[in-house]
Amino acid sequence: MTDLTWGLWELLLNGVWLTVQLTVLSALLGAAVAFVVGAARTHRLRSVRFLSGAYMEIFRGTSALVLMFWIFFVLPVAFGWQLLPMWAAVLALGLSYGAYGSEIVRGSLAAVAPAQQEAGIALSFSPWQRLTKIVLPQAWPEMIPPANNLLIELLKGTALVSIMGVADITFGASLVRNATGQSAPVYTIVLVMYFVLAFVMTRGMRVLERHAKAGVGQAPPAKSFGVRRQVTVPRQADASRDVPTTGGAS
Amino acid sequence: MSTESSTSKETKNPAVDGSELIEFKDVTKRFGSNVVLDNLCFDVSSGKHVTLIGPSGSGKTTILRLLMTLVKPEEGTIKVAGEYLTHETKNGKLVPASERHSREVRKNIGMVFQQFNLFPNMKVLRNITEAPVHVLGLSKDEAEQRARELLELVGLTEHIDKYPSQLSGGQQQRVAIARALAMRPQVLLLDEVTSALDPELVAGVLDVLRDIAHTTDITMLCVTHEMNFARDISDDVLMFDEGRVIESGSPEKIFSEPEHERTREFLSAVL
Amino acid sequence: MSWDWSAVSEFMPRLWEGVLLTLQALVLGSLIAFALGLVWALAQRSSLKIVSWPVTAVTEFIRNTPLLVQLFFLYFVLPEWNITLTALVAGVVGLGLHYSTYTAEVYRAGIDGVPVGQWEACTALSLPRSRTWSAVILPQAIRRVVPALGNYVIAMLKDSPMIAIIGALEMLGQARQFSAETFQPTEPITVIGIVFILIAYPASLLMRALERRLVH
């Protein structure tokens, strides 16, 4: 690692900063998309549900990298829309991870007890008031753990922008590789950098979760250390975990 | 005297003559600070049918689970057919048993569970043949022959090719009995085997067990809330309360003229 | 917007080659992920800390870092250690290794979901450990998690274009090559985007149907 001069380190650290910016901006766009699409999927109008469902299926169905290529190379040629690389990257990541996020939003909205909706109706709240004042405040603590998983997937996804010439960590890594002629040190360092970012984000989300749960009067999640996160094992495995354990303990 | 039970060292059976199949000696079991079994001593002779009764939480099921090594005692020793179950002797000293040693001793013991615990991924036949083939080393043909005989005994011959989920609870429990018997155990442990069944299915299972009790010389250790069944099959009944045997004797004695106040209370509550 | 159907038909033969390579990478990657994930899951359950701890650390590390960088690592770093992989092999190994850390979690959930009574029945029948796992626990655990595994295969499909970046000519690789030669990016990239949806959407419907069937 003696070959890594201060200048090269600076390249990598600038890359870290850009990766952080990208992650935050894409997460904000993704969250906006997720809330709009997710809420729309519980809308009373069939057409709204259909359109939001179609959005989710299309953007979840295709590959984020292909979408990125499309925004970078097809949009300018076919529509004459040339975006700055950074914004094209945010758009691609936000749109596609937002589609995944919409499923989280829809799921946790649906998990709020129907009686809560009925109570809102009984109090003559408008649908919008019911959503913002009754359902969302109860639903959002439930969204945080899966949102954390998605956020880390997004962080990992930002590495794709290096292919488009956006100077993130991975882009910095290829520059350093070319400068030093060695791959092992720089790629090891870069992997560790991503891991540290993921670790910090997970810790942050856990703090957020504790606050959110305290806010709705639930017990905070157990404290634990490490980056270990619950990978979302989709519905079936969750359902199977609820199968009562038979056993003779008495 | 087939069983000798006491909770203090002074009155414990002094002569263990070797004919005892199961011997509990000063066994203590705790879960956290909760003492489930308190210095328990009792023996069961070969071929006897012993029923354990008592309020829930009194430690009856724990005895069966200790014998199956599903839980381990904090203190005391358990012998099955003269061999230590949870210990073995090494260089003249008693040390905790290896898994291999426990498994060897345990092969003498079969168990039927409250929740049947059949393997849902195997058909009835394979549920019964799996252990004889892979533990006892029987050939497939021998094991299947044995399984067919046992299925006839429990009256389920026509269900041999079904999955457990296609059977009623009572039928599943009868398969579980056949599965346990296929290992030709010396001891059969029955852990509240009818508690998870719909009331109309209980009789069929109990009939099978009565049949086995009366026609074989298998030793039975039975935890049940079916007092009529207990009266029918038991040679001895042990009344448990708070981790101790507070009273024991023939079913006639326990059910007709119990001595202990707690026994009377318990029986009047369940009968 | 300009759309040139002749470019589409010109791209078609290459598309099929790309689809074939994508599916090939997917099948091989899945096999690695299924097998290796099971190894991780069993190792993580080991009572030996010297086994469970490093495996947990390594799988967490792999799961929390980008696949693209891992592919670069396999493709650029290993040759420095005198292990040279072709782009396809590096891609398949990378996909399989990365997703094995997800399938490990799936298996773990599946194994935890097997009722404790099944373990007790195995003890009561004196079944040896190997038989307990192979005949009783794993068949039940894996059956429950088939849809979850399937969903990760679909996720892997959507990550598979990354192997184009190290030079494997799967769908995206073919599309890039075609547009570099013809200066027509619109048609090939749009077409492969649609092909991804055409494969992934029915597959995810299938998994949802499987989930429902297994739940009931």
From TrEMBL, chain A:
**PROSITE patterns recorded for this chain?**
ABC_TM1 (PS50928)
A cellular component annotation (GO) from this entry: ATP-binding cassette (ABC) transporter complex
Q: Does the keyword Cell inner membrane apply?
A: no
- Indicate yes or no for the key word Membrane: yes
Q: How the protein sits in the membrane?
A: Multi-pass membrane protein
Any Pfam family from its record, for instance, is BPD_transp_1
Domain ABC transmembrane type-1, chain residue ranges per copy: 16-202
Kindly list the residue ranges recorded as spanning the membrane: 16-37, 58-78, 184-201
Q: Keywords assigned by UniProt?
A: Amino-acid transport, Cell membrane, Membrane, Transmembrane, Transmembrane helix, Transport
The compartments listed are: Cell membrane
Reading the lineage from the top rank, the first entry is: Bacteria
Give GO terms: molecular function aspect only. Answer: transmembrane transporter activity
Biological process (GO) annotations held by this record are: amino acid transport
Q: Name the segments for region: Disordered.
A: 217-250
The record ties this protein, via InterPro entries, to: AA_ABC_transptr_permease_3TM, ArtM/GltK/GlnP/TcyL/YhdX-like, Ectoine_EhuC, MetI-like, MetI-like_sf
Signal sequence coordinates: none
Family (UniProt): Belongs to the binding-protein-dependent transport system permease family.
Full protein name: Amino acid ABC transporter permease
Give the source species. Streptomyces abyssalis
Automatic annotation (TrEMBL), chain B:
Q: Which UniProt keywords apply?
A: Amino-acid transport, ATP-binding, Cell membrane, Membrane, Nucleotide-binding, Transport
InterPro entries documented for this protein: AAA+_ATPase, ABC_ATPase_HisP-typ, ABC_transporter-like_ATP-bd, ABC_transporter-like_CS, Ectoine_EhuA, MetN_ABC_transporter-like, P-loop_NTPase
Q: Does the keyword ATP-binding apply?
A: yes
Q: Which SMART domains does the record associate with it? A: AAA
Q: How does it sit in the membrane?
A: Peripheral membrane protein
Localisation per UniProt entry: Cell membrane
Any one GO MF annotation of this record: ATP binding
Asked whether the UniProt record includes Nucleotide-binding among its keywords, one would answer: yes
- One cellular component term from this protein's GO annotations in UniProt: plasma membrane
Question: Which SUPFAM superfamilies has this protein been placed in?
Answer: P-loop containing nucleoside triphosphate hydrolases
Q: Which residues form the ABC transporter domain?
A: 22-267
Identify its protein family: Belongs to the ABC transporter superfamily.
According to UniProt, the name of this protein is Amino acid ABC transporter ATP-binding protein
What species was this sequence derived from? Streptomyces abyssalis
Automatic annotation (TrEMBL), chain C:
Q: What is its main location?
A: membrane
Q: Which residues cross the membrane?
A: 20-43, 189-210
Q: What kind of membrane protein is this, topologically?
A: Multi-pass membrane protein
Keywords per UniProt: Amino-acid transport, Cell membrane, Membrane, Transmembrane, Transmembrane helix, Transport
| Gene Ontology molecular-function annotations | transmembrane transporter activity
Listed under GO biological process in this entry are:
amino acid transport
List the record's Gene Ontology CC terms alphabetically: ATP-binding cassette (ABC) transporter complex
Q: Where in or outside the cell is it found? A: Cell membrane
Tell me the InterPro entries matching this sequence.
AA_ABC_transptr_permease_3TM, ArtM/GltK/GlnP/TcyL/YhdX-like, Ectoine_EhuD, MetI-like, MetI-like_sf
- Does the record's keyword annotation contain Coiled coil? no
Q: Does the keyword Amino-acid biosynthesis apply?
A: no
Which Pfam families does the record match to this protein?
BPD_transp_1
Q: Where is the ABC transmembrane type-1 domain?
A: 15-207
User: What PANTHER family does UniProt report for this protein, alphabetically?
Assistant: L-CYSTINE TRANSPORT SYSTEM PERMEASE PROTEIN TCYL (PTHR30614:SF0), MEMBRANE COMPONENT OF AMINO ACID ABC TRANSPORTER (PTHR30614)
The record's similarity note reads: Belongs to the binding-protein-dependent transport system permease family.
State the name under which the record lists this protein. Answer: Amino acid ABC transporter permease
Q: Which organism is it from?
A: Streptomyces abyssalis
